[in-house]
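My hope is that you will study the record closing this message with an eye to the fold:
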Amino acid sequence: MLISFIIPYHDEPQWMLDECVYSIQALGLQPHEYEILVEHDADGQGPSVTRNRALDKARGEYVQFVDCDDKLFPGSYSRIIAFIRQKRMDMLMFRYSVTDRESVGSHPLSCRWNGVEFLLHNNLRAGTCMYVFRRAVLGDLRFRPGIFHEDTLFTPLLILRARNLYVLREKAYFYRQHPGTTMSRRDTAFLDRRLGDAVTVLRDLRAVRDSAHGIAVASLQRVIDQQAMSLLIMVWQAGLGIAGLRRYAAILRNDGFMPLPFRWYNWKYYIFALISRLL
């Protein structure tokens, strides 16, 4: 079997799940080439537990996560399928669109990376639905249960295991933005938990970095630095203002994540490295 499509499902509208499933069925794969695993989160344990259960059931050589309120663009994703047949890579990353309008491109594959070098030289896009990966690469890696931002921990650890990774600038995935999503909530208790979990991810990544060797240390440090920056951005976007920035900057400082080190990852990071010294 070529590929397992894993769809975590909680209480989203049935029509969204139907659209998601239909978009997979429209890929033109033969029945023996794929399976669709709709894993129901009936007890509210969250997407980590749901995805882990589905990973243990999956039989495909490759795995693709799809959130049940999103869908694939069949024409563009068919190019993804063609490339994994051709290259048999460990991981193929692609892009998403926030508009429900497919535009099949002719983008070439990137050069071949190994995962450690990719993290060292590229900004991380951690969303678990934005790549397809070879199931054998997983080993014992699973999502950490009980936290938000579980993808920002899982994805870099998965990339580290990839011996050959490619990037395709194809928008093969429709990311549906709507008020009912978990991350659209703005109540104080939810925001505190969400931001606290982002700090937990930083601590877990640091523990992995401290046991790493060679260039993997620098690769993980880049991930940590950029996720610390992302936490500050989340605080600002949540409307917590300067007081919120100072509060979380103090938490990060006490943990040794602030001030952000001066490194030229990109211009936005460099500006935040400057800002971090003023908080």
